[in-house]
Amino acid sequence: MSVSRQSRQWSAATYREQMMTFAGASADARVDATPRVVSRWVDIALAAPLTAGSQIAAWSGTFRGPVGVNALLALAMTVPLFWRRSRPLPVLSIVVAVVGIQALVFGATETAAVLLPLLAAVYSAAAYGGPAYVVASIALLGIVVHDLRDPLVDSPSQAWFSPLVTTAVFAVGRVVHSRRCQAEEAVARAAVAERDREQAIADAVESEQRRLGREVHDVVAHSISVMALHAGAAEQVLDRSPERAREALRLIQRTGHDAAREMGRLLSHEDGESREPLPSMSAVPELLGRVRAAGLDVDMIVEGARRDMTPALDLSLFRIVQEGLTNALKHAPSARTTVRVRYDKDAVSVEVLSEGPTARHENGSAGRGLRGIAERVDAVGGRLEAGPHAPSGWRLAAVVPAP
């Protein structure tokens, strides 16, 4: 193809079309810069004028050969451009095949009606199609066949134009393709990051719900157990010793107030407020006093010097002791119970041992409490043992690493 006025006019038209395409590829599922409807209208706006122009050229006798046949070939060359984004490689193959057939049968014609559809197909395949070597091979085949059958291409000075322009269009298309791929990867990474963020939030919410459930269970289960025992004692002595019954009722009232206060501390902690500290191992003597008042025979043995611990670890150890005493109150109120706390160099061990007859309950409450304690111990990297103790009784023991 020689340099004609129509050929030179190609660059501005194709540049504008390329800019419209590039400016428009990202909101749809294939990360086009424009929505699919707009992209479709851009394709129509490109293909329709090229189709009309090729028909005018065919019916005006611009092509070599019969007018009717050339009109059909011109349709076959331009109509596929309506699908240049969705089927870029098939469109390029069809356009190159038609250009080659027309050149081989009738001889190549020097006209923009051939050049522009071919370049549009090359750009579309480079920007939206497959591997670069496939697109380049098909485009090169079309250019070579056309130029070999073009009588105006009779010297090296005439042969450079078609490959140069096609290479430039191909390069622009590959730049667009590269940017589209980068955009797709960025969108994919953003989608993965968003899914990971949502999953992390869901995991955090679930973990916090479990933690809060453990706290509420420990507070409520212990307080209800203590109040139930005091209520039973008050009922037994109500007639013969009203003063002892009143004392039991006062203990029930105090236990209820303590539970309400601890729930207030817990909820204020959840709201991010800093009112009263949550329980720690320093509150164990007070806890023992309450369960002794409820009728449980309990002693405490401390081995080693008490050490500073993180608030989470301190609270977890307190809850372990509380759960062990709660189970003793509910299932072995007549058993002798020992709380043993040992502070080693790199660990703290807590044991609640009930020695005596143990009642069997199957309401599942103790199971939930033990599961909560197991989660606490696992969260601080410790190990938990819970089960019957020979010859009779129950043992709850935990060892956790200490900072």
Main attributes?
alpha+beta, single chain, 5 strands, Heat Shock Protein 90, 2 domains, five-stranded mixed sheet, 403 residues, disordered N terminus
Brief overview:
Residues 208-269 form the Signal transduction histidine kinase subgroup 3 dimerisation and phosphoacceptor domain. Helix 3 runs antiparallel to helix 6 (112-128), helix 7 (132-148) packs antiparallel against helix 9 and helix 11 runs parallel beside helix 12 (311-331). With 403 residues, this protein is of the alpha+beta class.
How would you portray this structure in words?
It is an enzyme of class 2 (transferase). With 403 residues, this protein is an alpha+beta fold. It has 2 domains: 5-194; 281-403, Heat Shock Protein 90. The chain has helices at 5-8, 10-23, 36-59, 67-78, 88-106, 112-128, 132-148, 156-159, 161-237, 242-270, 284-293, 311-331, 365-379, and strands at 297-303, 336-343, 347-355, 383-388, 394-401. The protein has a 5-stranded mixed β-sheet with strand order 1-2-3-5-4, covered by helices on one side.
- Can you count the helices? 13
> Any idea what the shape is?
rod-shaped
The ordered H/E elements are: HHHHHHHHHHHEHEEHEE
Low-confidence blocks of residues: 1-34, 359-366
User: What is the overall pLDDT average?
Assistant: 77
| Secondary-structure-derived class | alpha+beta
Provide the domain count.
2
For the biggest sheet, the summary is:
5 strands, mixed
**Count of distinct strands:** 5
The strand line-up of the biggest sheet is 1-2-3-5-4
Helix share, percent: 55-70%
